[in-house]
Structures
1.
Amino acid sequence: MVKKIIPVVDSYQERAVAVGVEIGKPKSDFTLEDSLNELCLLAQTAGIEVIATLTQRLEKPNPQTYIGAGKLEELKAIVNELGANIILFDDELSPRHLRELEKHFDENIRIIDRTALILDIFAQHAATREGALQVELAQYEYRLPRLTRAWTHLARQAGGGGGRAGSVGGVGLRGPGETQLEVDRRDIRRRIAHLKEELEKVKSHRRQYRRRRKKSGIPVVALIGYTNAGKSTLLNALSSANVYVADQLFATLDPTTRRVILPDRNEILLTDTVGFIQKLPTHLIAAFRATLEEIAEADVLLHVLDISQPTAQQQAQAVFQTLKEIEADHLPVFTVLNKIDLLKDPRQTINILEQYPNSVAISALKGLGIDDLMRKLEEFLFTRQHPLTLELPLRETYLFQLFSREGAVDKIEYSGNKIILQGKIPGRHLAKFTPYLYKFPEEKTALRELIP
Ligand code: GDP
Ligand code: MG
């Protein structure tokens, strides 16, 4: 099915036809159309206008051209008719699919997949050195297996095609019997090794910083959520900090931490993070591991959900899926329903609050519900005692002391080299004890439900 979109802005030079393919049964709750709509927003963020969309449902991808032969003809016709210069695939194309598809189109028509697009947006928005290094590494790792003569040629002509990460570094002295392509591959490999070393250094800095932060004893709350949910806006609202806020996907790439004083003068460190998105390629997650590790190191997660989105529930699921992947799904989650100012009927807020029983409704932009959120967050972290039962190894004397000091011990039982401990502890300490929860799976899930 082809859907033409009437251009809103005609100043775009990049005009794309977007192609969405559903292989087999739907793998997530995002429909083909939801995903394609999101791709259009991603494209817009990257300065590309999508002028038509094309969809297909397949049992399995065509081994050569990914889409079927008939669909390929349809695509060619629409690209010609509309004068598009980009074909944008909503999935990651294998190097082989990309090469085969390129054979069917003119050299001036670029074929880009979702991964390349997200990488490009990441590259545009990396603000710190670490962010820039991570994106560059991910870009090279993505490009290495996809390197073709044509690509190298174009990249060199364009003088590095699209920023730092596009240039191969000009070391290209050809060894005996080496082709240009081999030289390029060798350069890229060398660059990848160098980037990895640099990142390792940044990482050890970050570790030291984290250690210092831990010593301070101030609880760390990490803002998490789907991209564009309003995390940076909320950080601003809570801290009046001047963090970069933009109506773009992935405006924030690097974690920014601010100190926030709550109504009863308790302090927290609030950390902004990169947004999650469905179909975030695995090697991209790997590239951003250091950034994402910040999340796993937090004491509590503040999950921001854009409740004005029809796909809010699916977005929440994508967030929890990513948490699992970065092994941060043991942390207590506090849910914030954001953008209530966009709901047409105020009664909708009440309905939605009922759907998410443990949540606070706010508008980070209009400052609605912020006081309520601060009070409930403070209560959760500092005042309320959360009941739990632990199976604590005797060697964890530090944790035992912490529990006795900050919590309330109701019952204690010794069993071999373990203590079975029943009691209560304020929210800011919960995460430290989750690895030792008694009756593990149930309690672990129950923790998720702990909210203001
Ligand atoms: P992030 O990607 O989660 O950090 O999202 P941002 O904080 O950058 O916000 C994305 C967009 O949503 C920006 O245009 C914000 O102005 C807008 N936004 C954030 N919170 C609200 C809100 O409560 N109401 C409305 N209407 N817009 C909001
Ligand atoms: Mg942000």
2.
Amino acid sequence: MDKKFRFSIWYFIFAFWLLIMLQELYFTAQHRNEVPYSQFKSWVMQNKVKKVEILETVIQGELYPEREGQAPQRFQTVRVDDPDLVHLLEEKGVEFTGVAVSTLWRDVASWVVPILVFAAIWFWILQRVSQGAGGGFMRIGQSKAKIYMEKDIPVRMSDVAGVDEAKEELMEVIEFLKTPDKFTRIGGRIPKGVLLVGPPGTGKTLLAKAIAGEAGVPFFSISGSEFVEMFVGVGAARVRDLFENAKAKAPCIIFIDELDALGKARGTGPVTHEEREQTLNQLLVEMDGFDPRVGVIILAATNRPEILDPALLRAGRFDRQVLVDRPDRQGREAILRLHARHIKLAPDADLGKIAAMTPGMVGADLANVVNEAALLAVRRNRDMVHQTELEEAVERVIAGLEKKNRVLSPAERERVAHHEVGHALVAFMLPGTDPVQKISIVPRGIAALGYTMQLPTEDRYLLTKSELENKIAVLLGGLVAEELVFGEMSTGAADDLQKAANIAKRMVKDYGMSETVGRVALELTPPPAFLKPGDVSPRGDYSEQTAREVDEAVKGIIQTQEERVRTILTQLHPVLREGAHRLLEQEIMTGQELQEMLAKHPVGQPAPVS
Ligand code: ADP
Ligand code: ZN
């Protein structure tokens, strides 16, 4: 069951219990000193009763005090249908009254009071929840989503290093916040939402703050993950508040950290999360509802753009994405230099060397390295930070990161470099593949140790058989390169193999591109909506025999391509070596650089485009 729902059930049970207790109390208070009717009657006979009040269902009365000065004792008894009673009371001289009307009020009160109490409790709970105050068992439900507003931010763009591309892209946002009029006059497209995409600690928050600092505007921030633990409706109200406050302070920046916690694609999980959906919907409504000319720019950060609800990325929302990637070697050096401003470096400190030692580290890690080094120097009573402290600090930070984030060993890096260059070389040699933009071995998390970025030349609707085969060949380039250079492949090729197998399967089963299986479409028609080219469609209805033939055909396609790739890479072995070494040195290499190396090689002329 949903956590929040369970808690609200507890509140309900608690309130209900309270209600019953109150009624009980009310009841016993009314019925204190209840005596049997016979007892009452005998008191009357004994002249002990001073006065009685005959109500609809009970008789309440007062006895004469037993001794002088004592308070009169009150009692109550059930009213019995006794026609002689009035007679008897008159006879004994007991004062008596009948109050029939007042019981109506009492009846009403006995209903209204508990309801009021109930409502008051409920109101109190809601109050506490929305104020986010309080303790005890109420703490679970309290709202953590706080809107922070900061003015006069001291952070500047010069405090962010190693992410020059992102900085450049964001300069325009600063320009707009500084002089919104200029943009409105010229009628340029004003950004509304900018999504900063990148791993944690690369400086996304820092960049957002630097924009606010440079433009001299207030900075509103809120974190997506804080919305998740709230009562339905509270998150949406917070979003509304946020935009209202921001609009009042425009020009300004709204920064939503961890947008993925809030903006997960709707209705994909096993349980739909109503609170998150409401909050997300409210965010969409607010983003659509304001005119960017008021000068509010929404920045959001995420490290998982792929799980975001596509609605968030539509035009007029977060339609601009800025990659804030892990820094390369030069970037790392710049970041180290920046953080070393505040410490005294000894002449032997070599930040370039430290940068070379720390592939895969992000800005936050590097800031940590400098900090650790300074602490070590203090502990050693040194008045400057030497290279030894810096290197030791790197080791400490790596040890701390090892559990979270893999940092590759030198041997692994060498393997990854050859693997990536393998992909790139095959892509260069085969016609109709997307040109290689960039090759990188800057680790980016566990899934991809390196990557070869191919930019598609044009949007393609049709792919020919040979183009699909070439795609498979490029995917196999990595593992074949590993085998050629190191004698065996590694687990690093699992993802490539899966992609290659998917393409081959679709060639056989959906496109009828296999001679042995023939011109058949074996999959269900129509295929499920939104199937991407790489996805495997669900299995259709065909025989075991056909299934075996399909498997054989898929294997055949991949084998043929593997042989082709092996021929290409064997011929290009020297280029593979040279490229990998350059990549190890620089961590990032452009496609251009590799192509120049290739051009010097006799067989390195790319195949003519057929
Ligand atoms: P993110 O929001 O991407 O998770 P932060 O902006 O919170 O990362 O970064 C945390 C800290 O790490 C920053 O306050 C800063 O000290 C340091 N840092 C991160 N990236 C950089 C960078 N590119 N340049 C300088 N310092 C950085
Ligand atoms: Zn690969």
